[in-house]
Amino acid sequence: MEVIVVDTAEDVAQRVADRFDTAVRGAGDAGITLGLATGSSPVRAYRELIRRYREEGLSFARARAFLLDEYVGLPTSAPQSYHRFIRDNFTDHVDIDDALVLSPAGDAADPASAAAAYDRSIVEAGGVDIQILGIGTDGHIGFNEPTSSFASRTRVKTLTRQTVADNARFFDAPEDVPVHVLTQGLGTILEARKIVLAASGESKAEAIAQAVEGPVSALWPATALQLHPAVTVVVDREAGSRLALGDYYQFVQENKARLSR
């Protein structure tokens, strides 16, 4: 696992955008499949990618994308839906084909069947090339709450009270927050070829410390990332404040250039 600690949330966005920029340009005519997260953590990175599209010729014309999750019961037109969120905050502002921006069908009559079909669609597309993740204060990635199986696939999941409370700011009232979601499972997420996790702020510090340095445990779902061979964690100083080996991660970054000489 590569751990990068930078000064500010804007620096986090730059580093995450760098990873996606390199992957998209490197794919060329072969195209690329992106894994997109919603929520507050990735938004700054999306803004930077939009800027690079507008000003630096970064094209998503040969990309397709899969979202991590969606609320059960919300129509895609709802402003709180992740179908709408990713378009408002990213994909409507670049040249990706909207028909290739796919998300779990949270408004399906049979959510469990819709989840299974979505999981199959990722496999049939050849899998995700690069996945961006945020992290919850309880260590969830996607909506894989504590005790989620590391082998889990896309499925219906019940949110914790804490996650409902954290997401209430996006709704008119706390009781309006759906308590059920469709989410890619940890097993599904771990099949992405590369993963980039972004976090900023003191509220994420304990979750980051557990994800990077803690024991692999179902109580902290993000610890599953320790089992993946190509994960980059990018955090600001506040989110990285509880990392025991912060000085080492900095030393690694400072000396990384020597390997290419």
Fold and architecture overview:
The structure is a single chain. By secondary structure, the chain is an alpha/beta fold. It has 8 helices and 10 strands. The chain has helices at residues 9-27, 43-56, 82-89, 111-124, 161-167, 186-189, 205-213, 246-255, and strands at 2-6, 32-36, 63-67, 69-71, 101-102, 130-133, 155-158, 180-183, 194-199, 231-236. It has a 7-stranded parallel β-sheet. β2 (32-36), α2 and β3 (63-67) form a beta-alpha-beta unit. The two termini are 22 Å apart.
What are the salient characteristics of this protein?
261 residues; alpha/beta; 3-stranded antiparallel sheet; 8 helices
Q: Unreliable stretches, pLDDT < 50, 5 or more residues?
A: none
> What is the residue-mean pLDDT, rounded to a whole number?
95
Report the span from N to C terminus. Answer: 22 Å
Q: Tally the helices: what do you get?
A: 8
Quote the beta fraction: 15-25%
Overall geometric form: globular
| SSE arrangement, N to C | EHEHEEHEHEEHEHEHEH
Q: Strand pairing plus helix content: what structural class?
A: alpha/beta
**How would you write the strand order of the largest sheet?**
1-10-9-6-2-3-5
Biggest beta sheet summary: 7 strands, parallel
DSSP summary, beta strand count: 10
Radius of gyration: 17 Å
Helical residue percent?
25-40%
